[in-house]
Amino acid sequence: KDTLTIAIDGPAAAGKSTVAKMVAKELACIYIDTGAMYRALTLQAMNHSVDVNDEEALTALLLKTTIELKQTIEGQKVFIDNQDVTGAIRSLEVTNTVSYVAKHPKIRSEMVNRQQALAAKRDVVMDGRDIGTHVLPDAEVKIFLVATVEERAKRRHEENIKNGIASDLAELKKEIEQRDQIDSKREASPLVKAEDALEIDTTSLTINEVAQQILEQAKKIK
Ligand code: C5P
């Protein structure tokens, strides 16, 4: 095996994507945001009035939906059947519904197949909930990022304010807790640290410090 794969998992709003992007840039790898794929399917279900609790209908919808993650000069963009949904998949409604979509074993197995195909024969940094445990169990570097829910809600809140998005800290904390609860308690590949993953508590670390720690792990490999 001559490729480098880095798996980054952890609960909602732990800073996974920010750190993963930095690490990918530094190592000239592709960054794959698996959460964006579940979000894209959620948006597609909402737009096609498919009940997110109906695993069969959702699976049929997924099988006829192309989800693409494209690197552009403006950053990574997400497309559903060639339509740019980069902004739309971050809506509050998608965020608060996605964990119901991600519970279904048939949805997960199709997503995992697609994610493994994206990672085949390439250097990748992939983030999600089950990357180290299911998607890339042989990843050379496995990271599990955690932070207190207060800190995660605070970071999201500050990010919203910076982006001019209305934000309620207490509400955010509730939503994050709710999503973690569903993601951790589901039967199909729940959010859990892989046995061989390095856990990093980012509560009192900067993004840069976290990225450095991951890069150090990667250096030990190459
Ligand atoms: O990473 P992000 O917060 O965008 O993920 C959105 C949701 O997608 C998660 O809360 C989880 O329900 C689901 N997800 C998952 N497995 C992954 C990535 C995301 O179940 N590998």
Automatic annotation (TrEMBL):
ATP binds at G10, P11, A12, A13, A14, G15, K16, S17, T18. GO terms for cellular component: cytosol. GO terms for molecular function: ATP binding; dCMP kinase activity. Residues 6-219 form the Cytidylate kinase domain. GO terms for biological process: nucleobase-containing small molecule interconversion; pyrimidine nucleotide metabolic process. It holds the Pfam family Cytidylate_kin. It catalyses: dCMP + ATP = dCDP + ADP; CMP + ATP = CDP + ADP. It is found in: Cytoplasm. SUPFAM superfamilies: P-loop containing nucleoside triphosphate hydrolases. It comes from the Bacteria. Keywords: ATP-binding, Cytoplasm, Kinase, Nucleotide-binding, Transferase. Its EC number is 2.7.4.25. InterPro entries: Cytidylate_kin, Cytidylate_kinase_dom, P-loop_NTPase. Belongs to the cytidylate kinase family. Type 1 subfamily. NCBIfam families: cmk. This is Cytidylate kinase. It comes from Virgibacillus salarius. The gene is cmk.
